[in-house]
Amino acid sequence: MPQIEILSEKLCNQIAAGEVVERPASVIKELLENSLDAQADKIVIEIENGGKKKILVSDNGHGMGRDDVFLCFERHATSKIKTENDLFHLQYHGFRGEALPSIAAVSRLTVTSRIAEDPVGMRVNVNGGKIDEVTEVGVPTGTTFEVRDLFYNLPARKKFLRRDETEFGHIAEVVSRLSLAHVGVHFKLVHNGKVILDLYRQRDCLDRVAAVLGRNVVSDLREVDCQEQSMGLTGYVALATVNRSTTAGIYCFVNGRFIKDRVLHHAIMDGYRQLIMKGRYPVCILFLTLNSEDVDVNVHPTKHEVRFHNQKNIHTFVSNVVRDTLHAAYSAEMNSDQQRSHNVASNIGGKNTAIILSSCRPMFTNDVANCGDEPAGVQERYSGGGQNSVLLGSDNISSVREDDGEYALSDTESNVALPRLDNNCGYFAALTIIGQFHRSYVVCEDADGLILLDQHAAHERIGFERLKKQYLLGDIEQQELLFPVVLELGLRQDTELKEHLDGVQQLGFVLEPFGGYSWALKSIPAFLSNNDAGQMVLDVLAELSILGSAASSRDAYDAILIKMACHGMIRANQKLAVVEMEALLQQLDEVDFNRHCPHGRPILQRLSLVEIEKMFRRQ
Ligand code: ADP
Ligand code: MG
User: Fold this and answer.
1) Which atom of ligand 1 is found nearest the CA of 95?
2) How far apart are CA 466 and CA 561, in angstroms?
3) Integer Cα distance of 562 and 555 in angstroms
4) In sequence order, what are the residues at sequence separation of 6 or more whose Cβ sits closer than 8 angstroms to the Cβ of residue 68?
5) Is the CB of 78 within 6 Å of ligand 1?
6) Mean pLDDT of the residues in the chain
7) Closest atom of ligand 1 relative to the 101 alpha carbon
C-alpha cells in the first residue's frame, strides 16, 4: 500500500502556481489587481522579452508595512477578507491570498514597499519561494514587484511559453482589460524600453475606450445605460458592422471584474441576434453591476469565471438591454439619414448641393451620365427647394435604358414627376429608385448617396420579421390549399412529425393523417409558394428533430422562421418591376433591424456623393 504524505510547502506553492500562473500575463494580472486593491492611481509596468526575462509592476498605492512584506508570501495570507461573510461581499479583486506565494515559488522575485507612516521602506528578495535577503531602502510610498526568470526552476512549464511577441500580446490584453475598468488610474506599459501604452487618468470611459481599442471604433459605439432593481448595465456596444472573428472584442465586467462567462456571452450574442453573421462576434464593453451576494466569484483560481445566482434573469436583462440599445441606434440612424435627405433636398438650388430631389422618379439620362462638369451641372436640370417642386426640363431627359433589361423602369414612368418627399415617409420609401442591377440589387439614391440594396436579403428580413410577429401572436397567416399535398413519409419521419405536430402547426402548416405514413398538407403559411410547401414541411421537421427538446427555445424557432422566410422570399436573380421595388422599400420601413438580413448580412451599401466625387478626382 502506498503511504499518504503531506506535501511540502514548496511543492504546494508550485502546484498552486500551476493554477494561477500560466504565463507572464497571469503574473501581471495578479500584480495589477493587487496594485488596484491598494488604491493606486498610477501603475507602471515594465516588461522585458515578453515578460519571460523581467516583469516590473510599480504602484503608488498604500504599500505594505514591515511585517506584511514577509507575510504576503505565506499561503492564504490576505488583508482583504477576514470572515466567511466577507467572501460574499467582496470589495477587492483579491481574496484568496494565493497569488504572491505562487509567483514567488516559480521565479526570482523582489518586492520593495513602504507605507506612508514608516520613514523607510523594505526590500525583500525571494528565490524560488525562499526569502534570501532583506534590506531597508528609501523609497516613496507604494509597492514595486520585480519578477525575473519566470519558471526558471520549472523547465517543464517554461517550455510551454511562446514567442516574446505572443506573450506580450497576452500582457497587452490583460492591461487593456484592467485599464477599461479603471479609467481613473494612470497605466503605463513599457516593453523592452519602448512605451507601448500611456493611459493618463481619464474621467470618461469613452476616452479610455478610444485609447485602448482605437479611435476608429468609437464612432460606431452606442452607449448602454440601464438600471433595473438590483441590476445595472452600462458601457458601450458597437454597431453590428464592427465585428470580429473571435470573442476578443467582447469586454464584460461584473462588479468591476473582467469575466469570461458563457451566460453573458450568450446574452450579448442574443442581443445581436440576426445582426451579425454566423462565426462573427461583436465589439462591446459592458459593465454589469449586481448585488455582491448575487454573484459568486470564488469559482475559479484566476477569477475569470463566476457563478450567478439568478442566471436566467441576468441573461434576459443583458440581452434585452443590448438589443434595445441597438434597436434605438439603428432607428436613430435611419431617422438621421432621412433627416439628411430632407435637409439636402430642401437645400437644392443652394451652393453645395447636388443631384436630384429625393422622391423624384429616378432617371438614368444620357445627359446626366455624360455630364462633364461640376455636379452643379446636374442641379440645373431640377428646380430648387419647395414642397411642390417638380422635375423640370424633362425634355432633356432621354429615356431610361431598358434595352438590355438591366433597368426596370418604363418610358412613361420616367417622365412622370412625383410629389416631393412626404415628411412622414420612412427612409427606404423616400429613396429614389434608379433601377435594378444584375436582377439582384435595387439601385437607389437618397439626397447625397448612391445605394445598392440586396433584394433577397431585404425580403428575408421583411419576411422574417412578419413571420416572427405573427408567430409570437400565435397567428401565422395561412392559405388553404385547393388540392392538399400528400406527403409520403418514412417511419422515422412519421414518428417525428407526430412528436412535433404542435410545433409544425404553430408555424402555420395544417396536416392531417392520410393513412399509413402519409399526411395531407391542407394549409400553409400565406406567403409560402405552393410548390415549396411540401419540402418546407420536411425541412421544418428535420430542424425540429435535430433541435429536440431545445426546440421550444427562441433560438430554435428563430432558425426555423429564418428558413421559412428564406424559402418564401424573392430570390436573387429575379427581375423586379418598379412597383415591386417600391413595395419592397416601403415594407423595409415597417420592420425592425432593416439594415441586416436575419443571417446578419448587410441589406444595403451606400456610397456617398463625396466618395463618388473622390473616385472621379472631383474633390
Ligand atoms: P490577495 O490579493 O488574494 O489578498 P495576494 O497573494 O495577491 O493575495 O497578496 C497578498 C497580500 O499582500 C494582499 O492581501 C495585500 O495585503 C498585500 N499586497 C500585495 N500586493 C500589494 C500591493 N501592491 N500594495 C499593497 N499591498 C499588497
Ligand atoms: Mg492578489
Assistant:
1) 3
2) 10
3) 10
4) 79, 113
5) yes
6) 80
7) 6
CA of 99 to the centre of ligand 2 (A): 5
* Nearest Cα residue to 191 out of 59, 54, 58, 60: 54
Q: Which of 48-57, 342-351, 477-486 has the lowest mean pLDDT?
A: 342-351
pLDDT tens per residue, range 513-531: 998 888 999 998 887 767 7
Q: Could you tell me the three cell numbers for 111?
A: 518586492
Q: How far is the CA of 193 from the centre of ligand 1 (A)?
A: 27
> Rounded distance, CA 36 to CA 94, Å?
10
Closest residue to atom 8 of ligand 1, CA basis: 97
Ligand 1 binding pocket mutation candidate from 44, 56, 72 (most atoms within 8 A of CB): 72
Q: How far is the CA of 90 from the centre of ligand 2 (A)?
A: 13
Asked whether 90 and 292 are in contact (CB, 8 A), the reply is: yes
Please tell me if the CB atom of residue 426 comes closer than 6 angstroms to any atom of ligand 1.
Answer: no
Contacts of 123 (CB under 8 A, 6+ apart): 110, 111, 112, 133, 134, 135, 136, 137
Asked if 284 and 238 count as a contact pair (C-beta separation under 8 A), the reply is yes
Contact call for residues 396 and 381 (beta carbons, < 8 A): yes
| C-beta of 427 in contact with ligand 1 (< 6 A) | no
C-alpha cell at 147: 519578477
Ligand 1 atom closest to 97 (CA): 8
* Whether the CB of 40 sits within 6 Å of ligand 1: no
In the chain, what's the furthest Cα-to-Cα distance? 106
Res. 92: pLDDT tops 50: yes
DSSP state, 569? S
Does residue 307 contact residue 293 with C-beta atoms inside 8 Å?
Answer: no
**Joined grid coordinates for residue 472:** 409570437
Residue with cell 412622370: 416
> Is the distance from the beta carbon of residue 61 to the nearest atom of ligand 1 less than 6 Å?
yes
User: pTM of the prediction?
Assistant: 0.66
Give the number of C-alpha atoms closer than 13 A to the C-alpha of residue 427, restricted to the C-beta side: 20
Instruction: Name the residue among 136, 15, 133, 145 with its Cα closest to residue 72.
Output: 145
In this structure, how many other beta carbons lie within 10 angstroms of the beta carbon of residue 66? Answer: 15
Pseudo-torsion of CA 237, 239, 241, 247, nearest 10°? 10
The CB of 64 under 6 Å from ligand 1? The reply is yes
Residues around the ion ligand 2 (C-beta < 5 A): 34, 94, 99
